[in-house]
Automatic annotation (TrEMBL), chain A:
Keyword Coiled coil listed: yes
GO molecular function, one term: glycosyltransferase activity
Sorted UniProt keywords: Coiled coil, Glycosyltransferase, Transferase
Superkingdom in the source lineage: Bacteria
Coiled-coil stretches noted in the UniProt entry, renumbered to this chain: 331-358
Name of the protein: Glycosyltransferase, group 2 family protein
Database matches in InterPro entries: Glyco_trans_2-like, Nucleotide-diphossugar_trans
The protein's Enzyme Commission number: 2.4.-.-
Domain (Glycosyltransferase 2-like) ranges: 5-132
From TrEMBL, chain B:
Highest taxon of source: Bacteria
GO molecular function: hexosyltransferase activity
Protein name according to UniProt: Chondroitin polymerase
Domain Glycosyltransferase 2-like, residue spans: 6-149
Gene3D superfamilies found in the cross-reference section: Spore Coat Polysaccharide Biosynthesis Protein SpsA, Chain A
Length: 382, 324
């Protein structure tokens, strides 16, 4: 049995895929299985994966029609045979010692999962300069390097959410049949995976050493996609569905569910296009009104500002939209004016360039400047 | 031919309206359907009319039962249905020609287990159609899909109505969940419909008026409710049992209690005759407690007016309650 199965769900990432694959196949932990799911890429991703698969028999390549992240990930989970499971997004990469370090710690402590701090990076395409930001999973030092029971520590759900900065014991994933939402066209399916792993794990650990390198300069990644307005709502409906299967699990995690939902919906408002924002605020309001009506929100887990936002948005969604969301008309008008002036300015600059470059301008310059200089010479003599 | 929709139609002494109803079913633009007519021991010539249609149209199947009510008739029809979806219609109503086509296409394209569409009322006495908005409260339905009852932002028992004829149900889903109609005189479809709404993973709506419910028909069951004044109590209890058996009554309990109060008050307000006082006392002394209304904290009631009525009933005798 391989020590770690690494799942790489791949869709149209030819620009980044080689860097990712190099970082995985060259891991110092050799006893690994690499499951690449090509989710119907239309660029050269599949060819890149094929060439790796030919050279390295640890690679399992699954080529399927495009069906979305969740289905692809679930196929990977179904295929995995390793003792632990890791996930690498194909536009990211990892340091070569990541899985050997994590695996060693996981086995030593018999962990259901272990997660490490990570970096987010942007790389300038011309200069290759890398901008790195260290991300702490938790702001509290004392949360690190200890074995804790996630299923009884709902507040741990607040750690920075991602599914790829660690590894999961496969027998644990299978015991609770933890999978991703398969709704076609959905996004943010890692939220549901995150909630499930925390709701069911008995032994977890986070460590304060950074490994995973998460790219933030890929314009195609979904956070920049403005069309998928309600994907987050679909995912949170799905998470609720999973949690309410067991009354006790729901009771334990419902306040965290609403907290995460709030934070993600606030993020969604920023992410979506101006034309969707008012409608979104109304749906946000209706959902939270319902949550309050059912007595499911817990004030004590929210910050003061968040709680007052919830009061505001549920009582007066239009007011909330106007005051907190919509770009004020004045600002919009001024922005437009600035844009217009900038355009005019650019055009005038260009005109100046053309004029300065023309023969008649240069001739005129000589005709005016030379006599002036001679004049000045005479004046100076006086 | 694979049957796309099985129409199940219980028929009992409706010869006056039956032709209009049958014509609007056999004339549906969706052709791949079967029409299962269950004669519930009619004493007029309803059965003859059905046989006439059966002789003309192979898609019509007539089965007969001794008078046992619409609930039993629907279950008998359901038992022999072969369609992908099920449509339970009432024999005094009539339908838009594309009702089944629109609802079926919607259900099929989104793999929905329940499809709900709009309806209005045909007021026979006035000879006009009256809009009925509360059968589908679109403000409480999410603007995204997939949706199920957990994505509603209002009481899940009030977003749609507890009758079956403005909905299409996937047969596989109905069979897997062993959904059945109750054999009671009125409210016999409430258990079926609300269980379906609570259990469905995927629902869809068609935001068009596709069916017309006949009103002010003096023979209609809802006009003779005095005979079946306690059926809603039986139906509500059965719904609670079904949700409990499914393991999630706890999740819907608050909605259930609010709905039980709403439904109780509607019955009390609309029932006439000697049974009104009987119902008043039953509610006050037994059923409000049984439904969980007595033990729900005041702030958990959605409709403050209904809650005030409840308090008034609890603290008054029948005659005093109706004075003023």
């Amino acid at each position: 049995m391989a020590k770690v199965s690494i799942i790489i769900p791949t869709y149209n990432v030819e620009m980044y895929l080689v860097e990712c694959m190099e970082s995985v196949v060259n891991q110092t932990l050799k006893d690994i299985e690499i499951i690449c799911i090509n989710d119907g890429s239309t660029d050269g991703s599949l060819e890149i994966l094929k060439s790796y698969a030919q050279k390295d028999d640890r690679i399992v390549l699954v080529d399927k029609e495009n069906g979305g992240y969740g289905i692809g990930m679930n196929i990977g989970l179904d295929k995995a045979t390793g003792e632990y499971i890791g996930i690498v997004e194909p536009d990211d990469f990892i340091p070569l010692n990541m899985y050997s370090d994590l695996y060693e710690k996981a086995v030593e402590n018999d962990l259901d999962f272990i997660k490490a701090d990570f970096y987010r990076f942007k790389r300038d395409s011309e200069t290759e300069d890398m901008e790195l930001v260290y991300n702490h999973l938790s702001p509290n030092k004392e949360d690190y390097n200890i074995v804790f029971n996630p299923s009884e520590t709902p507040k741990a759900i607040r750690y920075i959410m991602n599914t790829w900065s660690g590894i999961y014991k496969r027998s644990f994933i299978e015991e609770f049949h933890i999978r991703h939402n398969e709704t076609p066209g959905a996004s943010f399916q890692d939220n549901g995976f995150w909630f499930q792993t925390f709701a069911y794990a008995k032994r977890g650990m986070i460590i304060d050493k950074p490994y995973y390198m998460n790219r933030r300069d890929n314009p195609n990644s979904s956070v920049h996609n403005k069309e998928k307005v309600y994907c987050m709502n679909v995912e949170y409906d799905h998470i609720r569905e999973l949690l309410v299967r067991d009354k006790e699990v729901w009771e334990r995690f419902r306040s965290m569910y609403w907290l995460k939902k709030y934070n993600n919906y606030m993020g969604t408002i920023k992410r979506i296009g101006e034309e969707y924002k008012r409608e979104y605020v109304h749906r946000f309001s209706d959902e939270f009104k319902r949550g309050l009506e059912l007595g499911e929100l817990d004030e004590s887990v929210f910050t003061k500002i968040s709680w007052s936002n919830i009061q505001f948005i549920t009582k007066d969604p239009n007011g909330f939209y106007m005051k907190k969301v919509a770009t004020p008309v004045k600002v919009r008008r001024l922005t437009k004016k600035v844009e217009k002036l900038e355009k005019q300015n650019a055009k005038l600059q260009n005109d100046i360039k053309i004029i300065k470059g023309s023969r008649s301008y240069r001739l005129g310059w000589f005709m005016l400047t030379i006599p002036r200089k001679i004049k000045a010479l005479f004046k100076g003599n006086k | 031919m694979s049957v796309k929709v099985s129409v199940i139609l219980p028929v009992y002494n409706v010869s006056e309206y039956l032709r209009q109803c049958m014509d609007s079913i056999v004339g549906q633009t969706l052709k791949d359907i079967e029409i299962i007519c269950v004669d519930d021991g009619s004493t007029d010539d309803s059965l003859e009319i059905l046989k006439e249609y059966e002789a003309k149209d192979k898609r019509v199947k007539v089965i007969e039962q001794k008078n046992a009510g619409a609930g039993a008739a629907r279950n008998n029809g359901l038992a022999i249905a072969t369609g992908e979806y099920l449509s339970f219609l009432d024999s005094d109503d009539f339908f838009e020609p594309d009702m089944l086509e629109k609802a079926y296409e919607k259900g099929k394209s989104s793999n929905a287990q329940v499809v709900v569409f709009r309806s209005d009322q045909y007021r026979e006495d006035l000879n006009e159609f009256v809009q009925v908005k509360w059968t589908l409260r679109e403000k409480q339905i999410p603007p995204y899909r997939p949706m199920n009852c957990r994505s509603f932002t209002g009481n899940i028992f009030k977003v749609f109505v507890g009758w079956a004829w403005d909905k299409l149900f996937e047969r596989k889903f109905v069979e897997e969940n062993h959904l059945k109609f109750q054999q009671i005189r009125t409210s016999n479809d409430m258990l079926f419909v609300f269980s379906a709404l609570a259990f469905a993973q995927r629902m869809e709506i068609v935001d068009l008026v596709l069916a017309h419910q006949r009103r002010n028909n003096p023979n209609s069951l809802s006009n003779t409710r005095e005979k079946s004044w306690d059926c809603f109590h039986t139906a509500l209890n059965a719904l609670k049992d079904a949700l409990t058996a499914h393991g999630n009554f706890w999740e819907f309990e608050q909605d259930y209690i609010n709905y039980a109060l709403h439904f109780s008050l509607w019955h009390l307000d609309t029932i006439t005759g000697a049974k009104k006082e009987v119902l008043f006392n039953k509610l006050k002394n037994e059923w409000f407690a049984e439904f969980g209304i007595d033990s729900l904290p005041a702030e958990r009631f959605y409709d403050k007016k209904e809650y005030a009525k409840y308090l008034k009933i609890k603290s008054n005798e029948f005659n005093a309650y109706y004075e003023e």
